[in-house]
Amino acid sequence: MVLAMFFIEKRKDALRLRFAPSPTGYLHVGGARTALYNWLLARHYGGSFILRIEDTDLSRSTEEAIEAIIEDARWLGLDWDEGPEVGGEHWPYRQTGRNALYHNAARRLLVEAKAYRCFCSPEELVRRRQAAMAEGRSPMYDRRCREIAVADAERLEKEGKPFALRFRVPEGETILHDLIKGEITFQNVEIEDFVLLRSDGTPTYNLAVVIDDLEMEISDVVRGDDHLPNTPKQILLYEALDARPPAFAHLPMIVGEDGKPLSKRHGDVAVGRFREMGFLPEAMVNFLALLGWSLDDSTTIIDRETLIANFDLARVGSKPSVWDKEKLLWMNSQYIMSLGDDELAYRVLPFFVREDLIPPESQGGLETLIKAAPLIRERIKLLADAVSLLSFLFKDVGIQADSVSLLEGDESLKILEEAGKRLLELKDFKAGEIEKTLRAMAEDLGLSPRKAFQPLRVAIAGSKVSPPLFESMELLGRDRCMQRIARAIDISRQG
């Protein structure tokens, strides 16, 4: 029996936490939350945060995925004290460069009779599992190679017979004192003699993660509770290696509104996609932090400094957290509204560059966005939304099909023609003067402002939805406004 609880509060000066993603795909929001919680704990207690890449799955791991994971983590504002790009005394921080450590540990366990050679072929194992399931028995490995005499096993190895190395699970029970879930007891008889080294010599997850955490002096393992079945195996490995295990804390799963683990069927789950859509990293960090943890019973908007100052595991619950897309959108809009004009313009600029509306590093384009920022701040939930609202300032977007009808008819024609005349005579083409002129026109025509301004909005912005009309016209300038009104008049006459 091994106790795996060493309270964080007693080791504030020794905290070493890690995030160890497998680069077989994108950074899932669940993985991002795990990384965030580890980072917050390290920063709160003045400990170390380590990034380690678990890339032993050579068939699925890619360099592109590694780069994307690092980029997404950096976007969230996470930094690491040891790991790729920054180094550290436990280099390398990729498992593919650490094979000697795994083999040395496996050899030690074999010599001490805590592991054994398994000569069962993959095909045999599949057949036996299928037969066991068909008969209603457990599909666990039946341990038939466990009692092969050492001399016989060594002879078969010398003859070149392929084998995997399995851990010899001892009798008894393994107790985990989880920092979130409390005490959990595992009966060892229900734990399979799991593989340490595959027949091709590659290490399995459980061996590699234990050796890495041990060698890197990880004090606390904070991860999703989907890893809970691995934990007793890892505790047993620590015991077999005469080493003290880290403290374990298993975070509640993130689920969709249907109560099932969050996946692609619930929509976007990759951190990179949220960045592409125009979510702010501050909003994502705030939202992810609240998926399982709370500052108190009411506070929702929490900045990074407050998170660092207050984060611990005491307020992390054990129940699954529901992914609420609408709440995330709302939270993002709150952070957007808190940005100053310059900052908002700077944040939305890349989305205009991406759509070829503004050349990269265009000072003029940035200045226009700064002036337009107050017009859109309360109208967008995503940074990318700014493009559809402001694209008319940077190119002639034409008239949207669903808005053409607002230019048709004698009344619309009369509004456009009269507005064109009055605006042409306007000396100071500023929002205030434009508004005064057009409101006077509406009154003279006996029309409500809404009725009078709609054809003009379509003429100027190409859509019935736009930022405030008068400020938009000032930003567009008299010449371009007159050109677009003239075009709208032609469309109106043809209609």
Structural overview:
- The chain starts with 15 loop residues before the first strand and ends with a helix.
- The protein has 19 helices and 11 strands.
- Residues 1-7 have low confidence and may be disordered.
- 45% of the residues lie in helices and 9% in strands.
- The protein folds into 3 domains: 8-254, HUPs (Rossmann fold, 3-Layer(aba) Sandwich), CATH 3.40.50; 341-393, Helicase, Ruva Protein, domain 3; 401-494, Arc Repressor Mutant, subunit A (Orthogonal Bundle).
- The protein is elongated, with a radius of gyration of 31 Å.
- The strands form 5 sheets. Strands 3-4-7 form a 3-stranded antiparallel sheet.
- The longest helix is centred in the N-terminal third of the chain and has 17 residues, at 29-45.
- It is mainly α and 495 residues long.
The CATH architecture designation of the largest domain is: 3-Layer(aba) Sandwich
CATH class of the largest domain: Alpha Beta
Net shape = elongated
The span between the termini is 85 Å
Secondary structure class reads mainly alpha
Assign a percent range to the helix content: 40-55%
Might you state the CATH topology name of the largest domain? Rossmann fold
* Residue runs with pLDDT of under 50 for 5 or more positions: 1-7
Q: Tell me the β content.
A: 5-15%
Please work out how many helical segments DSSP would assign: 19
Order of helices and strands: EHEHHEHHEEEEHEHEEHHHEHHHHHHHHH
Question: What strand order characterises the main sheet?
Answer: 3-4-7
Number of strands: 11
For CATH, the homologous superfamily of the largest domain is named as: HUPs
Task: Please state the average pLDDT score.
Answer: 94
Q: In angstroms, what is the radius of gyration?
A: 31 Å
Oligomerization? single chain
Question: Main sheet, how many strands, which sense, barrel?
Answer: 3 strands, antiparallel
Q: What count of structural domains?
A: 3
